[in-house]
Amino acid sequence: MTARLANQTFANRRSFLVASGVGFAGLAFGRPGMAAPETVVSPSKPAKSTILFFLCGGASHLDMWDLKSNAPDDYRGPFQPIATSAAGVHISEHLPMLAKQAHHLAIVRSVRGTVNTNDHHAGYYYNLTGHAPDPTFVSLGNNRTPFPDDWPFMGSVVAAKRPAHPELPNAITLPHKPSRLPYTRPGQFAARLGVEHDPLYVDGSVDEPLKFVAPALSLDGDTTAQRLLDKKDLLRTINTTRGEFEQFGITQTWRQQQERAVSLLL
User: 259, exposed or middle or buried, with CB in 10 Å at 0-12, 13-18, 19+?
Assistant: First the structure.
């Protein structure tokens, strides 16, 4: 990390989440006038969190990361490669600022697809779960909705394995839940791990990039915070009363009679 980056104001999780809502620009990567790369220092402590930037669309990797400049014109990208701050690594001429930060990157060029569906569904699933799409991605295409027995999103796997955070969910997705009905994309849910390990989805807006809303935590209609607390108190009272009722002998007798009647009928 360069001294310039170290001096940025993203000092806490909240400010980073706010910045990430407006994309990579909020990270100040490759800002003009940045200092030359310095020696990378290994962190003294293990990372407590991981941030995954997943671009749902954009330029082809042939135009950005792997231009294949020695390939025939029919196969290579139309742009020229440029050197980067990482020895032997070349990227697109249109990414000069990112080229200065390449020593912070690990570019993986060995990933390939095994299922060709000519849509985004299969690739999305493959990248976010690490498992090859099954044949239903071919037969259903964009109509292939998430299945309960799908492989889980990698963030959900981590969330399920780590101890619960005292205040925050272990997995958070922002600035939106990718895709819209009926084309809800598989791969972004906990699936077979159970819905309790789904990420908390936080919605952002292009028009208001610093404003975020968590739909799962929003109160519906005219429900107020006080009304929600009143409902919670009512539920506690009902549960307490029900527990006391279950202890009465007449309740046990009634249940036994009910079970006998059902056994005679069946």
Answer: exposed
Average pLDDT (169-186) is 79
pLDDT band of residue 41 (cuts 50, 70, 90) is low
Strand partners, 91: 82
Does the pTM exceed 0.85? no
173, containing H or E segment: strand 172-173
Percentage helix, strand, coil, to 5, in the chain? 40, 5, 60
What pLDDT is recorded for position 8?
41
Residue reference for tokens 């807006």: 205
Element (H, E) at 237: helix 225-246
| Dihedral sign for Cα atoms in the order 104, 81, 29, 203 | negative
> Nearest CA to 153 among 186, 181, 184?
186
Helix H or strand E segment including 249: helix 249-265
pLDDT classification of 30: cutoffs 50, 70, 90: very low
